[in-house]
Sequence to fold (114 residues):
Amino acid sequence: QVQLVESGGGLVQPGGSLRLSCVASGNIFSRNTMDWYRRAPGKERELVARIGSGGDTYVADSVKGRFTISRDNAKNTVYLQMNSLKPEDTAVYYCNRPTQDFEWGQGTQVTVSS
Fold:
């Protein structure tokens, strides 16, 4: 069973930056498309960004131009660089693959507030 561990969240002021990391156990990481999701208080979990096994990327319109997804297959890690953060980016951030059948990690809390 693949395990996912997210980290890098924290409290940041509007306009600030954070870099999230998601480390996956196992040796199948490099063959998988990986996603970043977020769940804001009182809202459904939503897809934020996606990166294919070949490095092609997608980011949601709400974060386009501010967030960048990348991966390091040698480290079994996917990253989410978040710049120009806004209060509406406040959420718990999770990673998984599109089928969402890896066991969910604990997520990492991102709070954007002055």
Q: What stands out?
A: The radius of gyration is 13 Å. The mean pLDDT is 95.
